[in-house]
Amino acid sequence: MARVDIREVKKKLRAEFKDLRRKMPFEEKNRKDMAILDRVLKLPEYRNAKILLTYVSTDIEVDTKALIEQALLDGKTVAVPRCTPGKIDMKFYIIRSLSDLEPGAFGVLEPPPERCQELKAFEGSVCILPGLGFDIQGYRLGYGKGYYDRFLSKYEGKNIGVCYNICLKSLLPHGRYDKMVDILVTDKFVKRFHGK
């Protein structure tokens, strides 16, 4: 039996998920983003967190800008990642508003380190994870660069994956270093994973 190249399978899935997201009408995406935001805001993990770690969304991702603004209104410390050039590494920096951000690596809005303070202690935080797709076992398919996988290998707080229901699979290919999310939030449901 021929061996399957997991990298090729993941590459095809990434293209499929990106295509599904690009084809989603604006009104539908907005409705789904609002449903996901509503579910995240109701989670005790969010409500009890003093610090929110979150990615800054691009046009095809689950929107996090409204979440960032709400978390700031809720009095939480908000920190977003900045990718370290030339390394598979990212650091989180505290922002006070979305206007603190500027285009960085991969065209993503990032905090400039000369204006924003690096967050060094993650106690009392919850982390919102991006993913092109997730499966119902709690595994995520990222963009393939490994930034979040590396971060999650050391992060001890709760993490929450956010995803559109159309980008869910019953099972995604994953390796031994892939970690399940603690909680998965879609536009249809919230799922918690055992042992988390």
Order of strands in the sheet with most strands: 3-2-1-6-9-11-12
Write the CATH homologous superfamily.
Answer: NagB/RpiA/CoA transferase-like
Shape: globular
Count of individual helical segments: 5
The biggest sheet, with number of strands, parallel, antiparallel or mixed sense and barrel status, is: 7 strands, mixed
In total, how many domains does the architecture comprise? 1
Give the class from helix and strand content and strand pairing: alpha/beta
Describe the model.
- By secondary structure, the protein is an alpha/beta fold.
- It contains five helices and twelve strands.
- The strands form three sheets. A seven-stranded mixed beta sheet has the order 3-2-1-6-9-11-12. It has a three-stranded mixed beta sheet with strand order 8-7-10, covered by helices on one side.
- The longest helix has 17 residues, at 6-22.
- The model has no long low-confidence stretch (mean pLDDT 92).
Give a short overview.
The protein has helices at residues 6-22, 26-42, 44-48, 65-73, 147-152; strands at 51-54, 77-83, 90-95, 102-103, 109-110, 125-129, 133-135, 140-141, 158-163, 168-169, 183-186, 190-192.
